[in-house]
Amino acid sequence: MASLSLKNIYKIYSNGFNAVKDFNLEVEDKEFIIFVGPSGCGKSTTLRMIAGLEDISKGELWIGDKLVNDVEPKDRDIAMVFQNYALYPHMTVYDNMAFGLKIKKVPKDKIDKQIHEAAKILDIEHLLDRKPKALSGGQRQRVAMGRAIVREPKVFLMDEPLSNLDAKLRVQMRIEISKLHQRLQTTIIYVTHDQTEAMTLGTRIVVLKDGIIQQVDTPQNLYDKPQNLFVAGFIGSPAMNFIECKAVKSGSDILLMFGSHSIKVPEGKAIKLIEGNYIDRDIILGIRPEDIHDEQLFIESSPESVIDAKINVYEMLGAEVYLYFNIDQFDITARVNSRTTARPGDTVQLAFDLSKIHLFDKETERIIVN
Amino acid sequence: MISNQILQDTIDGIKAISRVDLCVMDMEGKPLASTMLEVSEYDKVVLAFVDSPAESQVLQGCQFFKVYDDNQLEYVILAKGENDDVYMIGKLATFQIQNLLVAYKERFDKDNFIKNLLLDNLLLVDIYNRAKKLHIDTDVRRVVYIIETKAEKDNNVLETVRSLFSSKTKDFITAVDEKNIILVKEVKQTETYEDMEKTAKVIVDMLNSEAMTQVRVAYGTIVNEIKEVSRSYKEAKMALDVGKIFYEDRNIIAHGNLGIGRLIYQLPIPLCKMFIKEIFDSRTPDEFDEETLTTINKFFENSLNVSETSRQLYIHRNTLVYRLDKLQKTTNLDLRVFEDAITFKIALMVVKYMKYMKSLEY
Q1: Across chain B, how many H-helices and E-strands are there?
Q2: B167 falls in which pLDDT band (50, 70, 90)?
Q3: Contact B297 A81 (CB under 8 A)
Q4: Structure confidence by residue, pLDDT tens digits, A102-137
Q5: Residue B135 pLDDT more than 90?
Q6: Which residues of chain B does A18 touch, with a Cβ-Cβ cutoff of 8 Å?
Q7: How many residue pairs bridge chain A and chain B with CB atoms within 8 Å of each other?
Q8: What is the number of domains present in chain B?
Q9: Which residues touch A199 (CB under 8 Å, ≥6 apart)?
Q10: What percent of chain A has a predicted confidence (pLDDT) above 90?
Q11: B1 pLDDT band (50/70/90 cuts)?
């Protein structure tokens, strides 16, 4: 088990392409860290630099108290699980798990002990004599995990290990990985582009874009307190709604004006707008779909945030309904209760939960107030 | 492996020269070739000799010798007589048969055949004859992968690749140099280049996680006949080179997907030099500072879009315009103009190619 420290890490290719820029991160022992971001954001490159499979252009990488920039991957005490795992087709599960240790010349009795321990953790003891073709997709994935576990590494690195599985199996394996982390009590760094995986698995999430860290935080904080427009839009499904508006002063109130609509900013958030000199300037209002309400009771209790909306699309998901509509040129989604009576073509009243709105600087895209 | 007739011819020849009777037996004491009329009396003695650690022994008026194939006992040779001359002839016969084994093995060795096939060391007629003898299909679809490891002589990599594909008897794994492993893979009729890419990804991921080493995988085009396998190999080799020069960030390179790098790679160096002199005169792109190079690359990345580039570089639009103007003064190329931009981009790639070729000279 070990902590990890990435200090001012850069990855610059010889064509000048800067894949990772000034990456700073402290990973505590036993943490489950997720790197998430759109494709090409540098998450896999960073993971590969930690593994030693890519050279670090600038910066320092520490595993425990050892600087490992120039240490060979096999000597870094890490184990990796990748997306395109394969099992040796002619070997049994036992031999598949033993292979890596055999080529490292680990004594037979130690190999045997480690395989049985790993098999127990993964609940695949009964499969040890089987060949890969006799295994299901989930079982094969577990064997691939087992190959990493038997190495008894200080750190596990996983690069989208579930993306080749079908949706149902992916959910199942996600739970398995979560359990595995609890059982192994080890440091895991996990790369994914799937935000559900990120939110459900990680103790902390690193959101990346264009090789730059956007925010490092717990899943809850990322959702509730995004630090910029990108994080706000990337985390959450359906994504947060954004409306360009102007902050104006009306008497003692601060209003957000967009098109023919105006809503009153709650006092606590209004102070931040005044302090930041945002009055009479364009800002961006962000609101999550579930913070737009159609219940009569809510509408009556917050008349200052009510808007009229013509529903374009109605999507029934069983427990909830997504309503799609436009406010001026902005596409908006509301997530409401399935008992809603709104249907496409209807003009309905909807109210924003003003305590949950997020306001962003239009130029810097940084958060003003959450 | 060697036919009994060949063994018989060999010992007959030796007897004709030395007048010493010889016999070749297998490990169970069964005679395979002999110049003596009766050898059944030695059956049991041979079995005892096989079990003994001795390399040679004198028993019942005969000298016994062991012949090994890759440390595995293959034959026992009997030379009639007890004196030193017979010992010497027996030893010579042993040496001769041992070498025959090696020669025959080499001749029929699949690995050797594949190596020679890849390196174009075989005549067309030999390819088909030997493939037939080795039971290798001549008209199936195949593709060649080259797996380049960071470290030389990385046995873990070879071991991992062998284990991954060895159950498929129709795939061949070999190595022609210290850094590269070659996989000649049979391709099913239904398989496409997407499947080739998937296989390459599996190889990379497996070697990264199991052998824990950096690898680069290149593959050629699918060929339909065994005689074309060397073409697929050459294509894979070229893809590996082109990838190293122009696509450093990729660890899988397909010959079918080399882009403009394919053209530049074929250019003769004197022509490249002329072109670079024309574009940059006495300067080289190395002389541009890091800021200029980053600006150029970002500008290309964003399809010559000034606003987007300045946004991504966190600089004012006018700063970017100033930098581009400055570059125009030194190179006479305005990167905002498509034709100039493409000339500049190609020139940068040509410089990279020239540098790579120069590095090979040392």
Answers
A1: 14, 10
A2: low
A3: no
A4: 888 889 899 999 999 999 888 899 999 999 889 988
A5: no
A6: 294
A7: 84
A8: 3
A9: A205, A219, A222, A223, A235
A10: 64
A11: low
Helices (H) and strands (E) in chain A, counts: 10, 21
Q: Which of residues 50-69 of A touch B (CB under 8 A)?
A: 51-54
Q: Do B274 and B320 fall into the same domain? A: yes
Partners of A16 on chain B (C-beta within 8 Å) are: 290, 293-294, 296-297
Stretch A194-219: mean pLDDT, rounded?
93
Select the more confidently predicted residue: A58 or A163: A58
Phi/psi at B19 (nearest 5 deg)?
A: 60, 30
DSSP letter, residue B158: H
Is the same domain home to B70 and B44? Answer: yes
> If you write DSSP's letter for every residue of A200-246 in order, what string do you get?
HH-SEEEEEETTEEEEEE-HHHHHHS-SBHHHHHHSSSSPPEEEEEE
The model's pTM: 0.77
Task: Spell out which residues of chain B touch residue A53, defining contact as CB-CB under 8 Å.
Answer: 208, 213-214
Provide the residue type at B361 as one letter.
Answer: E
Query: pLDDT for B236-276, tens place per residue?
Result: 999 999 999 998 889 999 999 999 999 999 999 999 999 98
Query: What CATH number should be reported for the domain holding residue B275?
Result: 1.10.10.2840
Cα B340 to Cα A55, B142, B262, B327: the distances in Å are 34, 42, 21, 12
Q: Examine the domain organization and report whether B193 and B291 are in the same domain.
A: no
Average predicted confidence (pLDDT) for chain A: 91
Could you tell me if A4 and A155 are in contact, meaning their C-beta atoms sit under 8 angstroms apart?
yes
What is the pLDDT, as a whole number, of residue A311? 93
Q: Best mutation site among B156, B164, B209, B242 for testing chain A: the one with the most A CBs within 10 Å?
A: B209
- What's the domain range around B186? 140-262
> Which of A88, A155, A163, A212 to probe by mutation at the B interface, max B CB count within 10 Å?
A88
pLDDT score of B169: 66
| Last residue of one domain, picked from the residues B214, B235, B262 | B262
Contacts with A, B 62-101, CB within 8 Å:
none
Strand pairing report for A253-258 and A155-159: unpaired
One-letter amino acid for residue A107 of the chain:
P
**B308 with B248, same domain?**
no
